[in-house]
Amino acid sequence: MTAKNIIWHELIGLKAKVIRASHPELVGIEGYVLDETRNTLTIVGDRVWTVPKDVAEFEFETAAGKRIRVNGSKLVGRPEMRLKKRWRK
Fold it and tell me: Which GO terms describe its molecular function (predicted)?
């Protein structure tokens, strides 16, 4: 999993952290991705957070320990439909 192809992978179960967001209270949220909808990620840490994808930048940690930053606007869309999307390089 790399920064270029993370949008085609399953995000549920990955460790996630909100790096930047338009709403200051969202910055710093970290935990594991519990659920993903078209516009939100549900992150479980010290409590359950529902974070909108389009207003935040996330850092995901893979099983290998690699950290990948992704702009949330690239993740907008149903998880099963993101696989079908064609992205410009």
Answer: ribonuclease P activity; RNA binding
Write out the CATH class of domain 6-82.
mainly beta
- Write the DSSP string, the chain: --TTTGGGS--TT-EEEEEEESSGGGTT-EEEEEEE-SSEEEEESSSEEEEESTTEEEEEE-TTS-EEEEEGGGT-S-HHHHTT-----
Radius of gyration of the chain (CA): 12
- Strands across the sheet with 40-44, in order? 48-52, 40-44, 30-36, 15-21, 56-61, 67-71
Query: Is-contact 33 17, C-beta < 8 A?
Result: no
Write out pLDDT tens, residues 50-73.
999 999 999 999 888 899 999 999
The whole-model pTM stands at 0.85
